[in-house]
Amino acid sequence: MKMSKQFPVNALRVFEAVARHGSFTRAGDELGMTQTAVSYQIKILEDNIGEALFLRQTRQIALTETGERLLPKTREGFELLREAVATARQTADEVLEIHSTPTFASHWLARHLGKFQLKHPNIAVRLLRSENGRDLTRESGDVAIHISEEPPPGLMSDPILKLSYTPMLSPALAASIGGVHEPVDLLKLPWVSTSEEWWQEWLTAAGVPFSRTIPARFSAFGALDLEAGAAIAGHGVAMLSPFYVAEDLTSGRLLQPFDLLLGDGKTYWLTYPPQRRKTAKVTAFQQWLKAELPPFSHDTA
């Protein structure tokens, strides 16, 4: 065999099928090939090896001595290939790589993934915090949590959640001004960083005139988990979602003085590449997440 010749993988596959069936016709039926195409592939292999592989007899074929030597290793090789592919598929099915915005990852997903793994013990989870908008059409990952008004282009996108927000603060900070009894009392306190426009919308809805700037003591550049931490530490009043800080409200680390909540017009989307929409691990996670987070549900205090 000349090593300069292209390795005839397809011809070997045809050879194995012909040897197994003892027939060019039946091998062709299995492989979806005509008898002529099967004969051509066998000829390619015989030319490559330099020896005949089959004895063509009337209405039957038989392996030559060279064919007998070639067959066991050929079968072994294809078994190894099938095993390798099966292992690769199994590994891919067992590991689910999730990319999530930091706050959703740390304040909800990481705390609940144990329930998913109890339900699907064969699926290992790799959770990675990443900035919003990770492009799964170009980067690795099975699914990603994306926050936007419209679904990101080029991906399958399932709406999973809408959040509402309201001012929250530490009980100690509220006590420092004798308590927060009316929305206007919030104007006496510093804010944890968020846009004035967002505050103005809430205060206007609460019936409070908004005509001056209130200094912010802490800037987290919109990272909700950091803003929540700053509010708990008493640095100021933060615009937070009860969905993320339910435990802090229950424990008394945070105080929500008013029932008025406003949405920000954005949706949390579960995104994944179109080619992965039917994979078992993605389907399992999609169904579990939707059961845990009813689509487009607004949280309440």
Protein model, in words:
The protein has helices spanning 9-21, 24-31, 35-49, 65-94, 102-119, 171-175, 196-205, 224-232, 246-251, 280-292, and strands at residues 54-57, 60-63, 95-100, 124-129, 143-148, 156-161, 164-168, 191-192, 216-218, 238-240, 262-263, 267-272. The longest helix is centred in the first third of the chain and has 30 residues, at 65-94. The chain is rod-shaped, with a radius of gyration of 32 Å. 42% of the residues lie in helices and 18% in strands. The termini are far apart. It has a five-stranded mixed β-sheet with strand order 4-3-5-12-6. The protein has a three-stranded antiparallel β-sheet with strand order 10-7-11. The protein folds into three domains: 9-91, Winged helix-like DNA-binding domain superfamily/Winged helix DNA-binding domain (Arc Repressor Mutant, subunit A, Orthogonal Bundle), CATH 1.10.10; 92-162 and 265-292, 3-Layer(aba) Sandwich (D-Maltodextrin-Binding Protein, domain 2); 164-263, Periplasmic binding protein-like II (D-Maltodextrin-Binding Protein, domain 2), CATH 3.40.190.10. By secondary structure, it is an alpha/beta fold. Helix 1 packs across helix 3 (35-49) and helix 1 crosses helix 4.
